[in-house]
Amino acid sequence: MTDQRESHGPTHRAETRRGLSLLRILVPALLILAWVAAAGLGGPLFGRVDEVSSNDRTAYLPSSAEATQVQELAGEFTDSEAIPAIVVVTAESALEEESLQTLADASAALAEQPAVIEEVSPPIPSEDGLAVQIFVPLDPEADLGSAVDQVSSELTSALPADLTVHVTGPAGFSADLGEAFSGIDGLLLGVALAAVLVILIVVYRSLLLPLIVLSTSVFALCAALAVIWNLAAAEVLLLSGQTQGILFILVIGAATDYSLLYVARYRDELRTHRNRGAATAAAVRGTIEPVLASGGTVIAGLLCLLLSDLKSNSTLGPVAAIGIVFAMLAALTFLPAVLYATGRAAFWPRRPHFDPAAAESEQTIAAHGSWGKIAAWVARRPRPIWILTALVLAIGSVGATQLEADGVPQSDLVLTDSAAREGQIALGEHFPAGQGSPLQVITDEGELDAVAETLLANSHIDSVTVTAEDSPSGSAAVTAEGIQAAGPPGTPAPEPTVVKGSVLLQGTLVDAPDSAAAEQAVREVRSALAAQGTDALVGGVSATSVDTNDASAHDRALIIPVVLVVILLILMLLLRSVLAPVLLVATTVLSFGTALGVSALVFNHAFQFPGADPAVPLFGFVFLVALGIDYNIFLMTRVREESLAHGTPDGVVRGLAVTGGVITSAGVVLAATFAALSVIPILFLAQIAFIVAFGVLLDTFVVRTLLVPALSLDIGRRIWWPSALSRG
């Protein structure tokens, strides 16, 4: 029996080794193939996101909002689902009869265009005789950008050269937004990836490694997009242009950050392990906790957006969270598999050689070059450093009070030249600026006269109509004397359309529908109707802006405290401490205040922006606190690890020296990717790009480098209170 066991022993061990060798080849190969397959599914969807996304602001309002209810009920008063394009044709001198006839013929010819689904209105001259307006109903399913361009080009070619054609209104502004967002799939991705590639080449000074890290980010984004696109197609999630842009940037930045952390650990392990399989296992073990903690914190912060009343905010939470999940998975599976397959060759020409003795000697503070010197400098005078740093940040945060985040007109959302904005200006010069986007009021039939009187009494409203099916135009004018007949004297007044006992009145605004004056009109009308006890709902474009801004302000007040509590609890579990997480969150909030304060000054005085959306501070807070806390997590998890071996003072200095290079690289990458958002000429994205990019750099070079280490050194081991580490 003994001889038999001995004879089979070597054979069995050889078979076991062959099996393990096969497994070491098979597992990485399967992981790489799985990610390639996922990228193959998601890659072709980059040009098709607009098929499952919408930029209609009303679609993102809560169902309880008045504007939402009015939009749903208004469809019962008319069969039209068209999106109106308002064409304004202007002339230098009064339009002659011949020009008016040419305009009439040209407008009638527009009905032959495929995107025009209903009768085009005849030209309506202005009182000054210098302009006409034409209402063109467009198919909501059509490509509005192409449809608006077609309308504009056909009229321009059919009219004399002395007439200028503008296309504005809901269709015009939608076309401008679509054009502005058109660069997301190409320009935004190209700029972001190019910026990351340049930074990676500088960091690694290698040919192959930057491409491996960059492919990790791209594969993570492709896989995330495959899931999100299908969920949006099934109407489980809502997508918009701004959500899509943030998703792209967030996944690329986060996946690259996690990859930088893994690569740094893997390079260190290759110095102490001859076998790359052992180095891979050790690197994964050393990276998984900070990556999961960091990603989990970001996901938790993003999911707090589910508490938002606005669907544009609440849907961003799960969309971005899915992206972060795939960023973590790619950094912890695809990247290790590829680096295992390529081994030390991935680092060429700076290959890490197996040399445990040299690796051990490099663990000294001095061996970390400039970061070792910075850590030693902070250790010499921690109290003056943290007090001075905190004071400077506090002064910078004072500027946050100057941020005008109470909403901006729709015409200012696009930063580049806007044909619709020029058309809106021309419309306001010759007609009531609110024509085509009226205030809509749905009320009981018996309240028609009282509601009409309230609307007519408002100085912001030029005229009032009521929907009437038997009127040639579909509506009838309402004055102080009642409903007016459209026709010669003696013509009977049309009866208003009644749906379930309600009527629909429309008030043409004197001011542009996206102006502050129009929003004031909505608030005044709602207050007046409520004061007289009238049961009425006020909607329309202006009411949508009011309800959106109010919902954003509510979200900001609710979600910011919740995010802070959630992140604080996660840090307490991660660091096994109470005091350290409180201080980390406090420093991050102070950093956010400074970023917001500096941004407000830059927006107001350097860029001269017209204001900011109420959601800008909320998004800036969620991204900066969730992402800014990342670097504190990377730092403090290493500090805790070093403190367990060397004590807290040495642990802080070692942690700062060891993580300095990788965290700085990660911060620069994330700042660069968010800065890439500014290539999309949308005000909201440009402001988020600046706030987050500046805030991340502030966290990287000031908060994580100076404030947190200096504060930790000054407090000493008590920072780990109440854990055993605080007692020595």
Structure description:
The chain has 728 residues and is α+β, with helices and mostly antiparallel strands. 63% of the residues lie in helices and 8% in strands. The chain is built from 22 helices and ten strands. The strands form two sheets. It has a six-stranded antiparallel sheet, sandwiched between helices. Strand 6 and strand 7 (475-479) form a beta hairpin. The protein is elongated and about 100 Å long. The two termini are 57 Å apart. 51% of the residues are buried.
Mean pLDDT level:
85
Largest sheet: 6 strands, antiparallel
Helix content: 55-70%
Radius of gyration: 31 Å
Name the beta content range. 5-15%
The gist of it:
The chain is of the alpha+beta class. It contains 22 helices and 10 strands.
Question: Can you give keywords for this protein?
Answer:
728 residues; alpha+beta; six-stranded antiparallel sheet; four-stranded antiparallel sheet; 10 strands; elongated; disordered N terminus
